[in-house]
Design brief:
Shape: rod-shaped
Number of helices: 6
Radius of gyration: 40 Å
Strand content: 5-15%
Helix content: 40-55%
Order of helices and strands: EEEEHHHHEEEEEHHE
Largest sheet: 4 strands, antiparallel
Structural class: alpha+beta
Number of strands: 10
Strand order of the largest sheet: 6-7-8-9
Length: about 290
């Protein structure tokens, strides 16, 4: 019998006819060359490991107990690192970048665990895991920063769209006055004259709007004792269209955004008394929209 020790400290005993042949250590799986039968047991440093990928079929006997070969640790580490690096530019595509980062993280952890057993490839596996984890954290940070910014930008865009609608309504009303020498009796008059499309009466934040309805309250009739001052409010958003205020249209055609508290103060001005009274009477009915042809 030939007895020798593996580099891992495992004592191995094989038949004399195995001298010069190769096989795997049953403990660590390292490919070893059995020393000749007539020679002394080879020291662990004299055992010649086979180059990766060139291992011969396992001979019978104790060598059959060698652990089954799996995907190379180095390959897993490289794949994990590549996926992790690819995920960084893909963060602009959100979903794709996060999926790549997650895949790189999983593969990096698997390669890390396998490298701890095989005692090789740990550096690249750790790098892949760290890169993937940092990419995921970066994605989460970008989401935390951009979601509020995007939400604010969308609200600003809807507010601007609403202002454009009111500006258009004001221009149509002045055109009506020039051609008829009178103010419209109701908003529908502007539609019938072809001065406005129905969509001009829809606030961008009003998801329940339907044709024939208005998201804005309009009141441009001048009551006795209250001259038609250019600063008089003649139209505004209905309550609830925007979170913290309203867009307003004045008799002179100016439009502006007002926080709700400033809007209520503006309604107390003498020139806005008719509009304020009409608006409060409308809001008291609980209606969500103005019917254009009424």
């Amino acid at each position: 019998m030939i007895t020798f020790n593996c580099a891992c400290g495992q004592a191995i005993e094989v038949a004399d006819d195995m001298g010069g042949k190769q096989g795997r250590c049953p403990k660590c799986g390292l490919v070893l060359t059995v020393p000749p039968a007539a020679g002394p047991a080879a020291a662990p440093t004299d055992l010649a490991p086979m180059p990766p990928g060139n291992s011969p079929p396992l001979p019978p006997g104790p060598w059959a107990a060698a652990p089954a070969a799996g995907p190379g640790v180095g390959v897993l580490s490289i794949v994990a690192l590549v996926i992790s690096l690819v995920a960084i530019p893909l963060l602009v595509a959100w979903g794709a970048g996060l999926l790549f980062s997650l895949a790189g993280l999983v593969l990096g952890i698997v390669a890390w665990v396998r490298s701890s057993r095989a005692k090789r490839g740990a550096g690249m596996a750790i790098a892949a895991t760290i890169v993937s984890a940092c990419t995921i954290l970066l994605g989460a940070l970008l989401v935390a920063i951009l979601v509020p910014v995007i939400g604010s930008a969308l609200r600003e865009a809807k507010t601007s769209s609403c202002l454009v609608n009111l500006k258009t309504i004001g221009g149509a009303m002045r055109e009506y006055e020039r051609s008829k020498d009178a103010v419209p009796s109701k908003p529908w008059d502007l539609v019938e004259e072809g001065l406005l499309p129905l969509t001009a009466f829809r606030c961008a934040t009003d998801d329940t709007w339907q044709q024939g309805q208005s998201s804005y309250f309009l009141h441009w009739k001048v009551q006795e004792g209250y001259p038609a001052d250019v600063g008089t409010i003649i139209a505004c958003d209905l309550k609830g269209n925007h979170e913290k205020g309203r867009n307003c249209l004045t008799r002179g055609g100016n439009v502006q955004w007002m926080p709700e508290d400033k809007f209520q103060i503006a309604l107390t001005r003498p020139e806005n008394a008719p509009f304020a009274a009409a608006l409060r009477a409308f809001e008291a009915t609980g209606a969500k929209h103005v019917i254009l042809d009424h």
